Amino acid sequence: MKITKERKAERESLVYSLFFVKKMKIKDIAKLLKIHRNTVSKYIKKHLT
User: Is the predicted pLDDT of residue 1 greater than 60, yes or no?
Assistant: First the structure.
């Protein structure tokens, strides 16, 4: 299943808001969205820079 750019952007902003607004842990976000922890932390790092 290929993820389109807008879907990816959607998911990235979701990760961002869960992490910074709801103060969720990375592994909880990963479990919730069914994506890998490394992917989650990559998204977060991208937002921090």
Answer: no
Q: Quote the number of domains for the chain.
A: 1
Residue 40: both structure tokens together: 């989650």
Contact 46, 11 (CB under 8 A): no
**Rounded Cα distance, 43 and 15, in Å:** 7
Give the integer Cα–Cα distance in Å for 26 and 6: 22
DSSP 5-42: HHHHHHHHHHHHHHHHTS---HHHHHHHHT--HHHHHH
Q: Is residue 19 scored above 80 in pLDDT?
A: yes
Q: Which domain holds residue 34?
A: 5-48
